[in-house]
Write a structure and sequence with these properties.
The protein is 80% helix and 0% strand. The protein is mainly alpha-helical and 64 residues long. It has one domain (2-58). The chain is elongated and about 60 Å long. The two termini are 44 Å apart. It comes from Bacillus cereus.
C-alpha cells in the first residue's frame, strides 16, 4: 500500500477504502460459512455413504 501511494498510484483513502471492503467481505464470508456448514456436512455424509457402496470411490473416501 505505502509504495503505491509513494509513486502516486493510490491515495490514502483508496487504501482505507480497500481495508474497509476487506473487513466487510471477510465478515460476510465468515457468516455464510457458518450458515452453509450444515449443508456441507450433509453432502459429505451422503458422499461417504455412496463411496462405501461403490468400490471405485471407496479408495477416494477420506471422510471418517
Amino acid at each position: 500500500g505505502i509504495s503505491r501511494m509513494y509513486v502516486g498510484v493510490h491515495y490514502p483513502l483508496d487504501i482505507l477504502g480497500a481495508a474497509f471492503l476487506t473487513l466487510i467481505t471477510s465478515a460476510l464470508v465468515m457468516q455464510s460459512t457458518r450458515m452453509f456448514e450444515p449443508i456441507a456436512k450433509l453432502v459429505f455424509k451422503m458422499y461417504a455413504l455412496v463411496a462405501r457402496r461403490i468400490p471405485f470411490l471407496a479408495k477416494y473416501n477420506h471422510i471418517a
